[in-house]
Amino acid sequence: MPGIPGPATATVAPSAAARTAAARTAAARTAATVPAARRRTLAAGVAATALALGSAVAGGAPATAAPVAPTAKTPGPGAAQCAPGRGAAHSDAVRAMCARTGDLLDVTLDQLRPTQPSVGFDQIYYKLGRYSSTKDEQNGDVNKRFDDWCETNGQEKAAKVPAGATLRKPSSFTCTVAVGKETDETRAAMKTVVVGPGGALYLTDGHHTLTSFLETRDGGPKTHIRLRVTANLSKLGSGAFWKTMREKNWVWLRDENNRPITVNQLPKRLGLANFHDDRYRSLVYFTRDIGYAPPADAAEYLEFFWGTWLRDRVDIKAYDLNSPASYLDAVRKASEAMTDTPGSTVIGDGRTADQMGRLAEWNNGKKATGGEFGKLSAPITEAKPGKLAYALDYRAHLPAKGGNGGHGKGGHGKGGHGGK
Description:
The chain is of the alpha/beta class. Helix content is about 35%, strand content about 10%.
């Protein structure tokens, strides 16, 4: 079947008793199969059985992030408005405000509000370089952008991708897991959103992935994706909302140079032009599975905490980030700093290096020519280039913009990336 369905058809909502029984059964199944730390994250979503809660959140029409910034408590929709099956009769903002923890919201990318001011441009450049390459197809695979979209949409990976398929039209390709057949594991791979005052949608995970979908040539701001609802805080006023977001660590209020910012300085929409470039965030991405591996109960903004810690240990300005060899040296230095530090070292958020996914051995005990570091080192001329090669090749072909060469508010140059 298509990656996502067409316009949603009304579903008959189960009774309260039936939903309760289903929730108990799902919770018991989750307890038996999912690690404890992840159970806490998924329990509410499993209990909610999101796709049976009404057409408003299951698919079809997206839930619009209305540009509302209240100064007092925002009244939410009443119980009658949120009754299953009623969603289609009301505004997109009301449907968003009716969403419950664990529901799956079908949105378009231009509706999402970031909760961080920066991204690692080179991580996104890797994705864009690979998405625009034909090497995956030459190797007998589908282009990675379809696998990434299916995974992010809770559908595991791409199954059939006919010629002419595009992210802009998910019905043009299929995923291995059909809509409505998601599992705890496929849901866990989805990105997350918090519903804020007025039904505004605040992205709390997936800034890099979704920005890649937005920036790739067959994507764009109207690309659809489903997100898992972490919490519905739409009834809170602005002050209480941001207080809760900070307490829950659902917002990152530090810029690309690790200086504090206010919530008013956060970007209003996704897109490279709206973000600053955090070069340490990119560096951490390239150390994945070499110096650390994200644990099942990963801290919010895990990579930013690692990046903050690395600032005192790796001087990225000492490396030429336009040179693959020099960039690889920086990755090796950073990843060795991760594995060499004692596991009990506090990295950030009160968590130790081991809790942050530190690997016991550099490159998982493999030589530099093997393992993930070996894969990362593969040049763009290889049949399967490394992530770094894709990133640098894509960046090298960007048109000059404003004298700093590249997207967004931070450019790239010899010795590192530019700032604002």
